[in-house]
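Quick one:
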Amino acid sequence: MIAYFRFALIAMLLAVIAGVSAIVTMQFAVHRAEVAVPDLKGLSLDAAISKAAERGLDVSVTERFYSTALPAGRVLLQTPGAGASVRRGWNLAVAESLGAQKIAIPDVVGKSERDALLLIRQQGLELGAVAHLPDARVPPGSVLAQDPAPEAKGAERPSMSLLVAAPQPADAPAWVMPDEQGKPYAEAAEALSKAGLQVESAAGAPPGAQITLSPATAAGTVVVQAPPAGARIDASTHVVLWVAGGSAPGSSPGTAAAVVTAGTPGR
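Output:
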């Protein structure tokens, strides 16, 4: 019986030793398969690929950015960073420099989405994100805003993102824009604000506007409005009022109203 227990104990010890040995061997094999990520920043793509290949790693270009710090074709960023431990065969993601920005950013605001896309591609740019927002002021499909701005310098990447007007929901409540011309700005702005509309005054007069006021026109009187009276509006409509005689009473701080002098066409 004693011999049996001795045999069983030896067998258990051998099993434990074998298990520990297997774990150590696996850990050793795993660590042997790991390598430190080299520093690829500043290298040309060919040099970066060669340096990574020396350690059994691959390289993929996932982003391209403008840069004044590095010439075109150089590695700007890398993931994982230099010094990180990865397994052989790991794919390193790098961002490539496009050099300094040379392409002019076009102005596509007001154009149709299709025309904007054609212009973007003609300039050698890519289309970035496109978001849609209901806006009753312009036809559906018109570009409301863009990023980067027209002629922007120091753009981050060769792409443009657009905000495009979407059709109004069929069940969206709509009203007819009232005629606020001739009313005091404070009165008109209060009435429109209570209706849930955004109201502000603007610097200068509308482009091409020819406004002549009589000497009896009181300062702070609304002389031009946008949208015009009778236009279809809804809760998303942004109303702009121009007034006579300087800053509109009750206008937001830092917002100047159009100055239209009595007897003189507004500019």
